[in-house]
């Protein structure tokens, strides 16, 4: 068993975790540990290929933004533990994690939870019907499309207009797939990168607002869906459903620790910026604010660090 | 564990690798026989046995029927079986609650009924009830407590039976469909499959929903199915233990659409509500409708004070393989050599060990049953990181670092468990899900699905296009992507 101690333990090495680590570091804090479940840092952001990120230094692609931050991190004294999964935080902020090297325990002054968010599933959205293959959340779709040459389907219908959803849609088209429609349950498109909408419009894909899937059919693989638009039902033959409406926090770990959660809204109770009901446990990024944009996540990560330092 | 080759002869052929076929296979493997189990799907337990509630029932209302007797007997067997097969099983107990005076009167009758049938039962009054289930509605006046009710994971149990049977020599052949029979002088002599013929002395029809088709193909008695669908909702493990017993409302009206069902804490830490019962037009209808969901929510949320209804993990449905007789039928067919196991609806899971015994009794006249001296009743499950203490985990990871590489975050499933599932015969994503619980968390594999695909590809040297969710036709990828 590996035991260490730190001033700051950051759980989750997505953009929120990276930004807070860098902020603490730049403010002169030492002994910072970032613990990441995956074998590389970057979280959701590393899957985005077209999205552009704006911050006070200007606008760059999400990729370039991420690699700048990762470079800064690797030049800093921040310790990064990859392929390390936190299973619990015991008394006195003792973070318990497991990795292929064994169990790790890190006693830390403060614990920042930055485990990010995930897409609402078909089940949470209560889309009734069958449960065949071919239903993906936008995130899974995008990561499969990024990783492999083959496509995940031939004809898709897409629910939701999150950045990641639209990136997945574009990739699906690039691999020769056809998109019957992109449906948005709300009256407005959700993404804040209008560039993505334009690319799709150029490719002839329409976004239908105020519309949602109400039935999925198919035995082995999806074969059709029914959606509702202005009280009219429309049946569409397709073999793929991509669902990327809104994000919910990855609440499993914080709930285990006892962070207060609103089960109705699926949001944590947060006092001010990132403070929780637990002493020296903070939440940041999409975990704390699942519906914020990447830009907001970055901004709020920086603010959280200032708050903690002035406490 | 599974056999690639289809044997050309056997003493006994079991048709269908559901919980019933597998229980029979295991029970028969105690004897010196050549046993072949044939399953059309790419894994055992993919039929009705995966679409059920996982309750080891203490009784059913129809105690005079065969299913009533077998239920009570079966229930008693699970302490031993679960130990032998290393399948987690817990007698959480059943609380039948009364919310109204009318229901309270119902409880009195239920109490007498259970006493009469020698089922252990106990009155629970308001105060104790509140202590046992703090989250129960204040309307609950009293309850009956039946301690013998238990829970287990029905697919884990089915797989364990199959693994133990295979260890004791049963050949389990998957992806093989029985299409007909060779019959000579009104005696079955061979089973025809889409992969060839097996000569055999005895055939056991445990094809569940398709037992009627099998019977027809053997030119045996006509079987009329009366299928009904049950939908269930599962709530997230993250809400914590809001109920710790199986809770059912004392049923009064027999409205078939809301009959039965309960709030069930599952063995994997989630909570299941249901099932309801609806008519179906086809046996393949395992869809869940908006109406099913509303009905279940309405019916069971009344029993609790408050419940995080938005925290849905999943919903699914199963079709009951009932027959019009409304009971289990386990008997020899008029076609010799065929043993019919029909109408195994609920409580089929509970009755499975007793059904197997009954089949052995029937088979005695057909083949000689010589006990095997080297029968091994035990089976070891896959070592689960989630079920381990941290102290022991460190040592395990030192031996095999794959235990330290978590693949499924929600369910804390390591790479070692996935690799082990594949070693034990999992070839589809659902097979891996059922063996390890990976992808069963609230995100349903949002991040781990790609990783699991990578592991399957690597372990089995499969091409991407050949990896499926649940067999041919349920591929994850299609060919024909561009060079990007
Ligand atoms: C909604 C619901 C809830 C339930 N809850 C409970 C419960 O809580 N407790 C309980 O005790 N019981 C419960 N039951 C009942 C229980 O699930 C069933 O009794 C049991 O699963 C039946 O098992 P089986 O092996 O007969 O059927 P199956 O599991 O369907 O097995 C039959 C197998 O035969 C295969 N097959 C069919 N045709 C062929 C062919 N031609 N060639 C090769 N293979 C073939 C099928 O693929 C299938 O795998 C429930 C049932 C339902 C529907």
Any descriptors?
heterodimer, A: 311 residues, alpha/beta, FAD/NAD(P)-binding domain, seven-stranded mixed sheet, 26% helix, 33% strand, B: 484 residues, alpha+beta, D-Amino Acid Oxidase, Chain A, domain 2, Arc Repressor Mutant, subunit A, 3 domains, six-stranded mixed sheet, five-stranded antiparallel sheet, 23 strands, 20% strand, binds flavin-adenine dinucleotide
Q: What is the straight-line distance between the termini of chain A?
A: 33 Å
| SS content category of chain A | alpha/beta
Q: Spans of chain B with pLDDT under 50 lasting ≥5 residues?
A: none
What would CATH call the class of the largest domain in chain B? Alpha Beta
Portion in strands of chain B: 15-25%
Q: Please report the total strand number of chain A as a whole number.
A: 21
Assembly status? heterodimer
Question: How many structural domains can be distinguished in the coordinates of chain B?
Answer: 3
Weakly predicted, low-confidence segments of chain A: none
* Overall shape of chain A: elongated
The proportion of strand residues of chain A reads 25-35%
| Helix and strand sequence of chain A | EHEEEHEEEEEEHEHEHEEEEEEHEEEH
* Share in helix of chain A: 25-40%
Whole-number tally of structural domains of chain A: 2
| Radius of gyration of chain A from CA coordinates | 20 Å
Q: What is the end-to-end distance of chain B?
A: 39 Å
Mean pLDDT of chain A: 95
Query: What structural class do the secondary elements of chain B suggest?
Result: alpha+beta
Heteromolecules bound: flavin-adenine dinucleotide
User: How many E-type strands of chain B?
Assistant: 23
What CATH calls the topology of the largest domain in chain A is FAD/NAD(P)-binding domain
């Amino acid at each position: 068993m590996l035991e260490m101690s730190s001033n700051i333990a950051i759980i989750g090495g997505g953009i929120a975790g990276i930004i807070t680590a860098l902020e603490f570091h730049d403010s002169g804090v030492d002994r910072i540990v970032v613990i990441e479940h995956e074998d590389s840092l970057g979280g959701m952001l590393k899957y985005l290929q077209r999205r552009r990120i704006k911050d006070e230094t200007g606008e760059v692609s999400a990729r370039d933004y991420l690699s700048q931050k990762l470079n800064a991190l690797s030049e800093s004294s921040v310790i990064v533990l990859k392929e390390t999964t936190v299973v619990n935080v015991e008394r006195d902020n003792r973070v318990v994690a497991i990795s292929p090297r064994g169990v790790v325990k890190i006693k830390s002054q403060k614990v920042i939870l930055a485990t990010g968010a995930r897409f609402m599933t078909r089940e949470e959205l209560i889309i009734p019907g069958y449960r065949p293959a071919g239903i993906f959340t936008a995130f899974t779709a995008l990561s499969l499309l990024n990783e492999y040459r083959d496509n995940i389907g031939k004809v898709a219908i897409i629910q939701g207009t999150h950045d990641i959803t639209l990136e997945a849609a574009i990739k699906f088209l690039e691999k020769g797939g056809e998109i019957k429609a992109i449906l948005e349950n709300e009256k407005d498109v959700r993404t804040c990168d209008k560039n993505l909408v334009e690319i799709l419009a150029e490719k002839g894909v329409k976004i239908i607002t105020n519309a949602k899937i109400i039935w999925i059919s198919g035995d082995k693989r999806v074969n059709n869906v029914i959606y509702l638009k202005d009280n009219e039902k429309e049946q569409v033959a397709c073999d793929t459903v991509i669902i990327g409406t809104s994000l919910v926090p990855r609440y499993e770990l914080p709930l285990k620790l006892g962070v207060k959660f609103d089960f109705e809204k699926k949001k944590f109770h947060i006092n001010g910026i990132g403070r929780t009901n637990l002493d020296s446990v903070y939440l940041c990024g999409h975990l704390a604010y699942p519906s914020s944009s990447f830009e907001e996540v970055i901004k709020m990560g920086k603010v959280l660090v200032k708050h903690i330092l002035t406490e | 564990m599974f056999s690639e080759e289809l044997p050309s002869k056997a003493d006994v052929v079991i048709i269908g690798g559901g919980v019933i076929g597998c229980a029979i296979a295991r029970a028969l493997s105690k004897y010196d026989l050549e046993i072949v189990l044939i399953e059309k799907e790419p894994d055992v337990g993919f039929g009705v046995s995966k679409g059920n509630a996982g309750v080891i029932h203490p009784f059913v209302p129809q105690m005079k029927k065969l299913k009533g007797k077998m239920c009570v007997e079966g229930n008693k067997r699970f302490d031993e079986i679960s130990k032998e097969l290393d399948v987690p099983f817990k007698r959480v107990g059943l609380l039948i609650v009364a919310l109204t005076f009318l229901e309270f009167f119902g409880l009195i009758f239920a109490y007498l009924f259970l006493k009469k049938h020698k089922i252990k039962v106990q009155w629970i009054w308001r105060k104790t009830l509140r202590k046992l289930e703090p989250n129960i509605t204040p309307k609950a006046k009293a309850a009956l407590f039946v301690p013998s009710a238990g829970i287990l994971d029905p697919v884990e149990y089915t797989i364990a039976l199959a693994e133990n049977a295979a260890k004791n020599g049963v050949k389990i052949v998957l992806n093989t469909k029985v299409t007909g029979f060779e019959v000579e002088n009104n005696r079955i002599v061979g089973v025809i499959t889409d992969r060839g013929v097996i000569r055999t002395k005895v055939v056991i029809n445990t094809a569940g929903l398709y037992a009627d088709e099998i019977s027809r193909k053997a030119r045996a008695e006509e079987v009329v199915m009366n299928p009904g669908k049950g939908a269930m909702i599962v709530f997230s493990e993250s809400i914590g233990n809001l109920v710790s017993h199986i809770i059912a409302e004392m049923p009064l009206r027999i409205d078939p659409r809301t009959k039965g069902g309960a709030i069930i804490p599952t063995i994997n830490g989630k909570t299941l509500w249901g099932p309801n019962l609806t008519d179906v037009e086809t046996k393949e209808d395992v869809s869940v409708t908006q109406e099913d969901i509303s009905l279940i929510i309405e019916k069971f949320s009344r029993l609790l004070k408050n419940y995080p209804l938005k925290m849905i993990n999943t919903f699914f449905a199963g079709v009951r393989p009932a027959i019009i007789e409304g009971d289990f039928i386990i008997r020899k067919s008029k076609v010799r050599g065929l043993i019919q196991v029909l109408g195994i609806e609920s409580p089929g899971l509970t009755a499975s060990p007793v059904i197997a015994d009954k089949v052995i009794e029937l088979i005695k006249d057909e083949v000689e049953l010589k006990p095997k001296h080297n029968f091994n009743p035990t089976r070891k499950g896959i070592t689960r990181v989630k079920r381990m203490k941290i102290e022991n985990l460190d040592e395990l990871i030192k031996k095999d670092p794959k235990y330290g590489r978590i693949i499924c975050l929600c369910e804390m499933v390591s790479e070692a468990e996935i690799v082990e599932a594949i070693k034990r015969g999992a070839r589809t994503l659902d097979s891996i899900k059922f063996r390890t619980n990976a992808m069963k968390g609230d995100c349903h594999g949002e991040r781990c699905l790609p990783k699991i695909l990578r592991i399957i590809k690597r372990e089995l040297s499969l091409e991407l296009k050949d990896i499926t969710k649940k067999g041919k036709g349920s591929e994850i990828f299609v060919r024909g992507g561009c060079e990007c």
